[in-house]
Design goal:
Three copies of one chain form a homotrimer. Chain A is α/β, with parallel strands linked by helices. Chain A contains six helices and five strands, in the order βαβαααβαβαβ. Chain A has a five-stranded parallel sheet, with helices on both faces. Chains A and B meet through helix 5, helix 6 and strand 5 of A and helix 1 and strand 5 of B.
């Protein structure tokens, strides 16, 4: 079997800025390596499909996040901190030449990564297809299993 | 090989209300599609096997959670907020026709999803088998690998 | 195919004390069962490769964590709480005979688990190879796919 026939299936369930990178970076890398790739967006992961994602990141609850300096948790909960951390991560990514989430997502679409929005979650959170980008499909877990069951790699992110 | 012979292996490691849905929804869907399915409950995931799970959800540390209105992080830490968010999610799920965790779990058991509690974690947290539902097995990581190593899909949730 | 030829691929992305156990426990168990095993450390997971990891755990944002007694979230944010919870988990693990992260990591290396640090993340966070343990490799997502694409189990932790 040639490398080109391999398949990568991703279930993207997180909706924060930091956890938005892994699905799109892994999917675009796999697509560049010739993998047929699908991402099923469900739960909080639906946020990654919004036209204007407006994703945030926080260090709260994540003691593994590298910080420029140690900061007491109680300070991290203060108003403005989440916005500041989000701006810092975006600036950091840009300065290191990492593409933005919108750019990575566009690269995935151009590389024929199939993106499926979980219909049940869309209904659950009363989201509207008009809020999401073009070029995606809608389906349920059963739809995804048809592809995932044949995949070489399946990741729950 | 027929679809009926496919295998899904899940490692369920989270113990909050929101992350309790994916293992049970994916397992019950897979079982309905004819997959032989096992869930290995370890770390915080053991909470999902309690007779009365009493699971909670919080928006703290999860900026990806859809909120009815924006709320400063410091307000989210106030007493009563976690209880309120838990009640809201349960009400939301019910109003949309999503089964409760207890119901989804029962559906999995009726569909012959094999559930294994991680013995090491049970010992670690001094939990008692009497706290858990009937119909589950106990075992270690090695037990799980015997099934996972033969699976078509293996997910760490 | 013999059991000895099976392959386990892990993507370790978390950098807290609690989420440091699963990759090393699963990898060392798999290696003991004869699996060829690789761990790709990326994002916050790079913290697990530091010579002196100094990992922390917190109950904030994780209502699934078993607590000796219920504690309001606002108390959990107070100075000293994260340090106290970290000390408690380490003591608990030790009293139950669970090896420390450093010991589990060493067991993995001795069992020929291949560890790869994500070069992109190393550059992103301005980390230095001198901060990491000996015996690891450096590479990108493409390097990891070469192994993961041939694996029997691939987990995103």
């Amino acid at each position: 079997m040639s490398e080109a026939e391999k398949k990568l299936a991703i279930i993207a369930t997180k909706g924060s800025l930091d956890w938005a990178y892994p699905p799109f970076i892994l999917a675009s890398t796999a697509a560049a390596l010739g993998y047929e790739t699908q991402i099923f967006f469900t739960f909080y992961g639906l946020q990654l499909l919004r036209k204007k994602p407006n994703l945030k990141v926080t260090s709260i609850g994540n003691p593994g996040m590298p910080m420029p300096m140690p900061m007491p948790v109680v300070l991290q909960t203060l108003p403005g901190m989440q916005g500041m951390m989000t701006a810092m991560m975006k600036k950091k990514m840009k300065s290191k030449g990492v593409a933005s989430i919108e750019e990575l997502r566009e690269m995935c679409l151009e590389a024929d990564v199939k993106m499926i929005a979980c219909q049940m979650t869309v209904d659950l959170f009363d989201m509207k297809p008009a809020e999401f980008i073009e070029g995606i499909d809608y389906g349920g877990a059963a739809t995804f299993f048809a592809f995932a069951g044949e995949s070489d790699i399946c990741l729950f992110i």
